[in-house]
Structures are given as structure tokens and as C-alpha cells.
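Encode chain A's predicted structure.
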Amino acid sequence: MRLRVQPSVVYYWIRRGMIDVRRLDDGSPVWITIDEIKIQELRDRVSRSKRMRKKPDVQKLAERGAV
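Encoded structure for chain A:
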């Protein structure tokens, strides 16, 4: 996902109905499909949040020599 958030945040959004998911049966993986508008809404939510930890962008860190 392009939001750099912890998986627990995504599961929270799913439980709250903020992201639509599909599943073939109880044991199968979850399929998440969201459009650009929803991605922007979630990005805005993440940027406003003081509680959500953003995962570091490892590629950018590596480009800067931090890794």
C-alpha cells in the first residue's frame, strides 16, 4: 500500500468500514481495492493523525545513505 502505515492501521480501517474488502471465504486472503480518491482521503487522515506511526520510506533513506 502507498500509505506507509502499519498493518494494524489498515485492519482498523477495514473493521471501521473505511476500506471495502473482498474475501472468497473465511480462510482466504483479503482483497483490497481502493481508488485514488480514497487513497487521498486516507493520506489526509494519516497526515492529520498524531497517533499513527508512518513506516519509513526505506528507499529514500537508502538514497540518502542512512541505510
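The CA atoms of residues 3 and 55 lie 9 Å apart.
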